[in-house]
Design goal:
The complex is a heterotrimer of chains A (172), B (665) and C (80).
Chain A lengths: L2 H11 L1 H30 L7 H5 L6 H22 L6 H31 L16 H4 L1 H10 L6 H4 L2 H7 L1
Helix pairs in contact in A: 2-4, 4-5, 5-7
Chain B lengths: L3 E9 L5 H9 L3 E5 L6 E9 L2 E7 L11 H13 L3 E7 L3 H13 L4 E6 L1 H7 L2 E2 L1 H8 L3 E3 L8 H14 L11 H15 L10 H9 L3 H7 L5 H9 L3 H23 E2 L7 H9 L5 H19 L1 H21 L3 H19 L2 H17 L1 H15 L7 H6 L4 H7 L6 H10 L9 H11 L4 H25 L10 E3 L8 H35 L12 H13 L6 H10 L4 H10 L6 H10 L5 H13 L4 H11 L2 H28 L3
Parallel strand pairs in B: 1-4, 1-5, 5-6, 6-8
Antiparallel strand pairs in B: 2-3, 3-4, 7-9
Chain C lengths: L1 H5 L10 E7 L4 H8 L7 E7 L6 E5 L2 E5 L1 H4 L2 E5 L1
The chains are: A mainly alpha (172), B alpha/beta (665), C alpha+beta (80).
């Protein structure tokens, strides 16, 4: 097997996933940190004080949620580090990062569907002030980028196309 | 003209899509039960096709047919003793070599074999080439291609089944094990054939090979034979470990000789599954991702289920009111309204939780991640004296201990399984959650979530410590070796997950429906009689009972009402809240109960904490006890589990209440 | 011959391939390992260790098999 050829080709291949991972990864990490901060504030200072920026970006004060965001961001960044050092398999992290962000967005959407039922159908008092916007959080809106990437680059992660080398062998 | 019957058995390695094929074949016409005498799940179903009535039996998924696990024994005994017309082996087309190992053994059993090549799409996408004609020729067995997830090839399969049935011909195909072993096989065959009273369903050659391999189950089968001594003389003359290795070698050798003619495999590429694995089992990211996914599953099981639980709650209290107001006389209205409908409500309210949980577990299993969970957690589990596979039942325990204990069947080693069964009850099941919700919600306000989380952690810690303790004392020894396939990641099929959810969820309703209903009616009766006393008052039987045990539970901070509720919690933990509702005269309205609990000076924040811990740990519900009895097959261990649980619960609650009091809470 | 026998499966590094020469595992694990394809002559590759270092994820006969270091220590190999 021509291992050198693989690397040369791979490096050219990883520019898009690297760029995507850098942007997506840093967004997840930053918003995750912001959410962590908001969550800490609520615990140490009191329930009503929110970081203004957090408010603007619809960041809830939810510590566990912040770990999830930071984790997804870390997966992306981890991939960037691997891809930058020439390991083609680093695209795995971009792929799994996208999958994870979608999985958690689906979880959040289900939970907020539950909240919607509470608010509009059961008219539960705890959810009196609930609007669809109350559950729109980074975990959901950041996943839109991932969804876009997932659809757009579906082919990129197909095993057949992941490594160009094997293509010609298969076609013979 | 009546339909003609065909009996087919499905076999195959785990994770080859056997269940999906079974579902595709039988649809909803399934029956889930147990194999007689053992606790392995038996699934059967029927399909009518072209005038034939075909019975499909889903045998347990196995890699081999040795006596390594109960699953393997069940599968081979069925094939030999029940003689199904056709044995279908589901083969993963993307992994022929290991799958054909089972084929070699099925052939030795002398069964009418039919091979179903499943997941051809995956293999072909990868670039593998499969030559079916060559395969049929070399294996002397018909081969059918299917993609069970898309229901492709099902009709072809059924046509072939009928064709084979009509042929009624047996084709033997044997593997040669080399002159030395063959000689021994012949020798044993000869000795065995001298026994005229032998069970003729068992092929002599198969018995001989198994004996040479040191199969203890087969040895036990021939132990009563008059020629047993002679057989053992031959077996003792050989180096059995060498033979074992040699026989396995020869089987793989036979496969490897024909394999290149049947398929050409594409060069190894970086598959999606490899990519996913690279991240999900990453040294640093693997564990955090695992925890995050578990947290996500938790959120879905509990947060998403809440509105549905509320809806059931509302519906049940409405029905209860309607019934109570329209029935005469009063005692009947009370029995039906408070007792029976209240009881049914207590059962149904957990249905959303349980259904979601089983759905998610099935998704995890179908995706291949459950095996990674065992892989990731094994070292930790091993340290506490358990097997990585024990993690899965423990995880299921969060939903309901009953299926969790049943899930422990996947653990081959007896001791590992016993320990898992004994510690699963400490894992906080869904039924205990309402107790936490009620008390944490009432007494801890905003901190309720944290307190509930702490209860789950406490359960896990006690389970871990118990496992360690059991390993050091009553169940000595090391956990069994970890030899497990990490199946490729796949997108799980929705229908399989839904069927799994329905089967297990329904099992819960059935179990709960009977036991909890009986429990609630008993409470109602004890609280209402002697007839004429105020419902659930101190003068009722239930009050008298509560007073009787009060001294034992007083050091834990419980008064007679709590004692009563806990006694009834023995029937099922769901009942604790229901019976408190009855005792406090709040019916099944949780808000009313919450207010009355707050107003009761007998319950403090501290005693509510102690109560939650006690409820978590003391004897599991009767259904769980029943399952423990069934799965361990021993009353000794069942009674041990009950007493141990109560002792741990009492100690823990004592520490919390007395410790807390000392600290001034 | 002797020095080939010295190397055991647990010494393999991620990505390295080897051929199994002898399985010295005893008891029921022995049977199971054979059934899973760990026979003499089989090619095996260490894919990676579990996040906590143990068990190991090997590729053998085209699929992933995971075993603990404890068993790997009793399986003899020679590197290819």
């Amino acid at each position: 097997m021509d291992i050198k050829g693989e690397n040369v080709e791979a490096q050219a291949d990883t520019r898009i996933p690297v760029a995507f991972s850098v942007v997506s990864g840093s967004l997840y990490v930053l918003l995750g940190l912001l959410q962590l901060l908001a969550g800490m504030n609520r615990i140490f200072i009191g329930p009503d004080i929110l970081v203004p920026l957090a408010d603007l970006l619809l960041v809830p004060a939810d510590i566990i949620g912040s770990f999830v965001l930071i984790l997804i961001g870390t997966v992306f960044i981890y991939g960037v580090i691997e891809m930058r050092s020439g390991i083609y398999e680093g695209v795995s992290y971009a792929y799994v990062g996208i999958l994870l962000s979608l999985i958690f967005a689906i979880i959040y959407l289900f939970v907020s569907t539950g909240n919607m039922l509470e608010a509009y159908i059961l008219r539960n008092e705890d959810f009196a002030e609930w609007t669809p916007l109350s559950d729109l959080k980074p975990g959901i809106y950041l996943a839109i980028f991932s969804l876009f990437a997932f659809i757009r680059w579906k082919d990129m992660f197909e095993p057949a196309k992941a490594k160009g080398i094997n293509n010609d062998q298969r076609n013979t | 003209m009546g339909n003609r019957e065909i009996k087919i058995a499905l076999t195959g390695n785990p994770n080859v899509g056997k269940t999906t094929l079974f579902n595709a074949l039988t649809g909803s016409r399934q029956h889930v039960g147990n194999w007689p005498g053992v606790t392995v799940e038996k699934k059967s179903g029927r399909v009518s096709y072209k005038g034939y009535d075909i019975e499909v039996i889903d045998l347990p998924g196995t890699y081999s047919l040795t006596a390594y696990s109960i699953d393997e024994i069940v599968a081979r005994d069925f094939i030999i003793e029940e003689k199904p017309d056709i044995v279908i082996q589901v083969v993963d087309a993307s992994n022929l070599e290991r799958n054909l190992y089972l084929t070699t053994q099925l052939m030795e059993l002398g069964s009418q074999l039919l091979i179903v090549l499943n997941m051809c799409d995956i293999a072909e996408d990868r670039g593998d080439r499969l030559y079916l004609d060559k395969m049929e020729e070399l294996l002397a067995t018909p081969v059918i291609k299917t993609v069970a997830t898309q229901k492709k090839g099902i009709c072809d399969l059924l046509d072939k089944v009928i064709e084979q049935k009509e042929l009624e011909q047996h084709h033997g195909h044997e593997i040669g094990y080399g002159s030395e072993i063959e000689e021994k096989i012949l020798e044993i065959e000869k000795v065995l054939s001298e026994d005229e009273g032998r069970d003729r369903r068992y092929p002599l050659r198969w018995l001989s090979i198994r004996l040479l391999e040191g199969d203890s189950n087969v040895r036990a089968k021939v132990a009563k034979s008059p020629v047993y001594e002679n057989v053992m003389a031959i077996i003792e003359s050989i180096d059995q470990e060498e033979y074992e290795a040699e026989i396995a070698d020869k089987r793989y050798l036979a496969i490897n000789t024909i394999l290149p003619q049947m398929c050409t495999r594409a060069n190894e590429t970086l598959t999606k599954s490899d990519m996913v694995d690279r991240v999900l089992t990453n040294k640093y990211l693997g564990i955090p991702i695992f925890l995050a996914l578990m947290w996500g599953a938790f959120e879905l099981t509990f947060a998403f289920a809440t509105p549905f639980m509320d809806m059931i709650d509302i519906a049940m209290s409405w029905i209860s009111e309607q019934v109570s107001s329209s029935l005469r006389p009063d005692w009947l209205a009370s029995l039906v309204g408070d007792g029976i409908i209240g009881g049914v409500g207590a059962v149904l309210v957990f249905v959303p939780n349980i259904f979601i949980l089983f759905f998610l577990l099935s998704l995890l299993e179908g995706s291949g991640y459950l095996a990674r969970a065992a892989f990731i957690m094994d070292k930790l589990m091993y340290k506490i004296g358990m097997h990585g596979k024990s993690f899965i039942p423990m995880l299921m325990g969060f939903g309901c201990n009953v299926p969790a204990i049943m899930a422990a069947r996947s653990i081959e080693d007896e001791k590992d399984r016993l320990i898992t069964i004994l510690v699963v009850p400490f894992v906080s099941c869904g039924a205990r959650l309402p107790i936490y919700i009620l008390f944490a919600g009432t007494f801890f306000g905003r901190q309720a979530g944290t307190v509930i989380f702490a209860m789950y952690i406490l359960g896990i810690l006690i389970a871990i410590l118990s496992a360690k303790l059991l390993r050091e004392t009553v169940i000595k020894g090391k956990p069994a070796p970890f030899i497990m396939e990490l199946p490729p990641y796949r997108v799980p099929t929705l229908s399989t997950s839904l069927i799994h959810m329905w089967d297990n969820g329904f099992m819960y309703i059935k179990k709960a429906g009977t036991i909890i209903l009986v429990g609630v009616v008993i409470i109602w009766a004890l609280a209402s009689f002697p007839w004429g006393v105020e419902y659930g008052s101190e003068d009722s039987y239930v009050g008298i009972l509560g007073h009787a045990v009060e001294p034992l539970l007083e050091p834990l901070g419980f008064d007679w009402k709590i004692s009563v509720a806990l006694i009834f919690g023995l029937v099922a933990k769901e009942i604790v809240v229901a019976s408190l509702g009855v005792l406090y005269g709040a019916g099944d309205k949780s808000e009313a109960l919450s207010e009355r609990l707050m107003a009761d000076p007998g319950i403090t924040t501290l005693s509510s904490l102690s109560l939650m811990a006690f409820s978590l740990l003391y004897m599991p519900c009767v259904a769980t006890v029943g399952v423990i009895r069934k799965e361990t097959g021993s009353w000794k261990w069942t009674i041990f589990a009950v007493i141990y649980g109560i002792a741990v619960a009492w100690t823990m609650a004592f520490i919390i209440f007395q410790g807390g009091s000392l600290l001034g809470y | 011959m002797q020095d080939i026998q010295e190397i055991t499966l647990d010494t393999l590094k991620p990505g390295e391939k080897a051929e199994i020469t002898k399985v010295r595992v005893k008891g029921s694990a022995r049977r199971k390992l054979f059934d899973m394809g760990m026979v003499a002559g089989a090619e095996i590759e260490l894919v990676r260790n579990a996040p906590l270092g143990d068990p190991m994820d090997y590729r053998i006969k085209g699929y992933h098999l995971s075993i603990r270091k404890e068993e790997a220590r009793q399986i003899f190999i020679h590197k290819v």
